[in-house]
Amino acid sequence: MVRRAPRGSITALAAAGALASTGTAYVGARNLLISQAAKARSLIPKSWDVPPRADGVYTPGGGPVQRWQRGMDVDLHLMIFGDSTATGYGCRIADEVPGVLIARGLAEQTGKRVRLSTKAIVGATSKGLSGQVDAMFVAGSPPDAAVILIGANDVTKLNGIGASSRRLGAAVRRLKASGAEVVVGQWLEEFECRVVGVVDAKVIGKMRDKAG
Questions:
Q1: What is this structure's pTM?
Q2: Fewer CB in 10 Å around end: N or C, the chain?
Q3: Residue 208 CA to its chain's centroid (Å)
Q4: b/e string for 102-118 if b means 16 or more Cβ within 10 A?
């Protein structure tokens, strides 16, 4: 005669097994991330190089960037926040910098003069976003549009996902409260047109609201 274990015991054993497997998976995933972060820090060189100078005024039809000066007439102000990805670290020329690609795309699609300002800092994590937004307010008026590219260094420095997300959210709320349209993303070359399109749609909508 086969004796069956009480239903409560079976449920408890199943729950314990699930918790054990989940805990093992969590520890394994965390250890993997730690090892990958350590490897990334050992392979990625220190950032001694300076990203190409990209700030200025971009106009429809291309052409060289114009140096912005106080009182210069521009239609849109685009500001870039974030880490080395946002600064264009590693780019050989200014026209490869994400901010420039977005600014030129906006100028072409809107027919407007676009001023590009960069507050991003090489090596920054989400912990530095608050300081970058502070610098924006010190420098002058808020931009019409803001793009945030952040997160890579939070991974290599093992910053918590929850805390990093909260810091990013706080920066977005401050920027939106200032009147800026905000786009957050990870810069990948194949998504360049999508980023430009999102910024374009947000800025054009804001311009129409102002005109109305």
A1: 0.70
A2: N
A3: 26
A4: bbbbbbbbbebbbbbbb
List CB contacts of 131: < 8 A, sequence separation 6 or more.
Answer: none
Segment 70-90, tens digit of pLDDT = 888 899 999 999 988 889 888
pLDDT digits (tens, 9 = 90+) for 103-112: 998 898 888 9
By DSSP bridging, strand 114-118 and strand 76-82 are parallel
The 3-state DSSP class for residue 76 equals: strand
User: Domain-by-domain residue ranges, the chain?
Assistant: 1-45, 56-211
Looking at residue 176, what DSSP letter applies? Answer: H
Alpha carbon distance 171, 169 (integer Å): 5
Asked if residue 150 lies in contact with residue 185, where contact means CB atoms within 8 angstroms, the answer is no
**Helix ranges restricted to H, 44-190:** 84-87, 98-110, 129-139, 152-156, 161-177
The CATH number given to 56-211 is 3.40.50.1110
